[in-house]
Amino acid sequence: MKKRLKIRLSENDIIFEDDNYIALNKxxxxxxxxxxxxxxxxxxxxxKSYLKFREDGKSPYLVLVHRLDVETAGILLFxxxxxxxxxxxxxxxxxxxDKIDKRYLAxxxxxPKTDEGTIENFIKGQREGRKEKMVVVSSGGKKAxxxxxxxDFKNDYSLIEFQILTGRKHQIRLHAKSIGHxxxxxxxxxxxxxxxxxxxxxxxxxxxxxxSNQKIDLEIRPVFDLDNFRTKISDEFKYIIFNxxxxxxxxxxxxxxxxxxxxxxxLPKELYPVGRLDKDSEGLLILTNDGKYKDRMANAKSKVExxxxxxxxxxxxxxxxxxLKKGVVIKDNYKTKPAKVKKIESNLVKVEQRDPPVxxxxxxxxxxxxxxxxxxxxxxxxxxxxxxxxxxxRLIRTAIGNIKxxxxxxxxxxxxxxx
Length: 419
Description:
Elements: E1 14-17, E2 21-26, H1 43-54, E3 63-64, E4 73-79, H2 82-94, E5 100-109, E6 116-128, E7 131-137, E8 142-154, E9 157-164, H3 171-178, E10 200-209, E11 214-219, H4 232-235, E12 239-244, E13 248-249, E14 260-261, E15 272-273, E16 282-288, H5 291-298, E17 306-313, H6 318-326, E18 329-330, E19 334-335, E20 340-344, E21 366-373, H7 380-387, E22 392-400, E23 403-404, E24 413-415
Parallel strand pairs: 4-10, 13-14, 16-22
Antiparallel strand pairs: 1-2, 2-4, 3-4, 5-9, 5-10, 6-7, 6-8, 8-9, 10-11, 12-16, 12-24, 15-16, 17-21, 17-22, 18-19, 20-21, 22-23
């Protein structure tokens, strides 16, 4: 039977109150509004009940003027009067840091290339089943701007302060993901399977109050920091996915100084690739210090399915695709096992530009296919495509088993839970 989520507030949960405002220290996992789930309490109703009980049954005026995601902890500010509600609505909608300053702390995987910076792009919602996920877009979205500062770094994790200058849904979570350093425990934008909630807290809120003619500074201490942050990942084995660019050796060493290898991408020390990816191929590469995991994933007997996005020379035919599905003869007279192959319309392929770009020939078209195989002969996918008369121009690995490349940018990496 499903357990009911009960929210029972006390005076210890109230971090600030005057005649116009009341601020609540929201815990991770508490919804801010009513949800469709009747078994879940919410912060707004819980605070109304607390105030009504405190005021001997008198129903309070209470309006929440902003929101926090369910798994985000931190300061939640309510208006206690119509005048205060209008004033706060104007402040929050202004998105001006000199009027209202919103700060968050988060534990993120890895360390950004610079210890401070600004993330600015356009984002919009994208429906995936019953859930909506925010994505970065080149057009058609809303502008999102976030400043960040790295406060501490230990055991391959950073404590980062974020300041949002716009108020978009999932803004910090998506922006952390977009720079290759997702928030630990984020159920949507990271590969972590951590069950204790994401490490994100709205820990500071400052604004000028026209009613008292003074600045109000609210601040709480997050329940997490890097000193008390211990996970199975950081204490024992580490697992990361890396989006390997073209022309990068799948090793840390170099034959000469002009080569590019894994050592050029600030990857964590003492992690080693699971399998390999050719120098002229791109995409998902798993690295770990877990020898058993490495052997299990790389062992041919495990039959882990690998997915590739392949651009081929020419408009590939249905006959060629059927041949690939059944298996074709490649080097050393080896016939490949049956594969899963389908054509992908070019307008549906969303990949970053390669550097250098693929050669372009005006009179010869190109096409894209997705290939899934559970074996791993040397340059197998390239040789399969060549065997049916459509040589490979570009090869991108997008998944190994259930580990997916997702929206990770070229040259970036992120941690995941290998267990």
